[in-house]
Amino acid sequence: MKGAAAAAALASAACLDGRNASPPVTAHLLDEVARRACRFFHEQADPATGLVRDRARMAGCDARSVASIAATGFGLSALSIADARGYLPRGAAEARVHRTLEFLARHGGHRHGFFYHFLDMGTGQRAWKSELSSVDTAWLLCGVLHAREHFDTPAIRRAADNLVARVDWRWMLDGGPTLRHGWTPETGFLPYRWDSYSELLAMYLLALGSGAQPVPPASWDAWKRPPRHYGGLTWIGAAAPLFTHQYSHAWFDFRGRRDRYADYFENSRRATEAHRLMCVERAGEFPWYGPDMWGITAADTMAGYRACERPDGTLVPCAAGGSLPFLPRACAAVLQAMLDRYGSRVWGRYGFVDAFHPGQGWYSPDVIGINLGILALMIENARCGGVWREFMAAPEASRGIGAAGLLRA
């Protein structure tokens, strides 16, 4: 046993510098993917504000100064994971979380508690004339609640409660039954509503569970749930990327629950299986696709960032990695195969590149915060349910689940 443990430790240490990209077994690889993703959220955040850079170069050095409020939410959860796993020195994650929450509560640009999609990392003010985003604020709040439950210090709890309580979800309804996508100072509310299945589950559950400005339970019933079909499988979905079946599940534990419409965990499992089949069946066109090499979602492509649903030859590691709880063996096999086959071309300081196209010899030079975030959180959930356990202890989560009628099956 001592020899095996030493060999595993050496393999793990060897891949820390990015030169040796082949941990011997998938369990070690998953730990290293999570470790490196958490490293991104620590290194690529402004140390004073805690706001996390939207994207960064794989090598680590990056002068871009725009943060994503969604990446910051994933980052708060990643710091909680890093603290639990010992990926950071003791106390470092807690100090960064406290600093982030205090900055957001006091200085982050917001209206009615909603944050702009993109912020300047150093000032917290609106960037790129972006919208106050309802769904991106939801990802921030998920991270806030998770960090509050994980660290549970008076200072963190106080700042987190402030951020959560001031969100006026009723304002974002704008007089309708469903939430608006967002608001800008120039044009007011965006014309789009969250009125059909997508990544909206967590956002509506937060809105239902708000202790200050909740939306009515009827809002849960107001959005459409269109059926989709592929390869003999049927699920509720949309013509949208795979992440729409992942993000809400990163925090809310839907296992063993259903409402009168669906078992949403099983629904995402079917959607993931259908996506896998769709990719495998395109192997004649893209020979690198196969049972252990598949997955595309919103990510970088050779043509720029795209919200892809249909396979186009690109491979996105977080497509399979972000679905680990749904198809553990199949998804873990993809990550191992990517590393075994492509090595240092797809592996670096923060783990996997965002995306790559083997047929064209293209490998993205960047990593994207939200894509690393879904990897870190879903690996933790697949390994021990850690994010689910802590997040679901929040009263806001249990109130939302109850208001939606998500009962134990």
3D structure, described in words:
The protein is an alpha+beta fold and 409 residues long. The chain has a single domain, classed as Glycoside hydrolase 144 (GH144) (Glycosyltransferase), CATH 1.50.10.140. The protein contains 16 helices and 19 strands. The strands form 9 sheets. Strands 6-7-8 form a 3-stranded antiparallel β-sheet. Strand 9 (227-230) and strand 10 form a beta hairpin. Helix 3 packs antiparallel against helix 4, helix 5 runs antiparallel to helix 6 (154-165) and helix 8 crosses helix 16 (395-403). The radius of gyration is 20 Å and the shape is globular. The protein starts with a helix and ends with a strand. The relative contact order is 0.14. Residues 1-24 have low confidence and may be disordered.
Question: What does the average pLDDT come to?
Answer: 93
Strand order of the largest sheet: 6-7-8
The whole-angstrom Rg is 20 Å
First CA to last CA: what distance?
42 Å
Keywords:
409 residues; alpha+beta; Glycosyltransferase; three-stranded antiparallel β-sheet; two-stranded antiparallel ribbon; 12% strand; disordered N terminus
Summarize the topology.
Elements (H helix, E strand, L loop, with lengths): L1 H13 L11 H18 L11 E3 L8 E3 H17 L6 H15 L3 E2 L2 E2 L2 E3 L11 E2 H18 L2 H12 L3 H5 L8 E3 L3 E2 L11 H9 L8 H5 L4 E4 L2 E4 L10 H5 L5 E2 L5 H17 L17 E4 L2 E4 L9 H5 L6 H15 L4 E2 L2 E2 L3 E2 L4 E2 L2 E3 H16 L1 H6 L3 H9 L3 E2 L1
Helix pairs in contact: 2-3, 2-14, 3-4, 3-5, 3-14, 4-6, 5-6, 8-16
Quick synopsis:
The protein has one domain (2-408): Glycoside hydrolase 144 (GH144) (Glycosyltransferase, Alpha/alpha barrel). It has 16 helices and 19 strands. It has helices at 2-14, 26-43, 69-85, 92-106, 134-151, 154-165, 169-173, 201-209, 218-222, 247-251, 264-280, 317-321, 328-342, 369-384, 386-391, 395-403, and strands at 55-57, 66-68, 110-111, 114-115, 118-120, 132-133, 182-184, 188-189, 227-230, 233-236, 257-258, 298-301, 304-307, 347-348, 351-352, 356-357, 362-363, 366-368, 407-408.
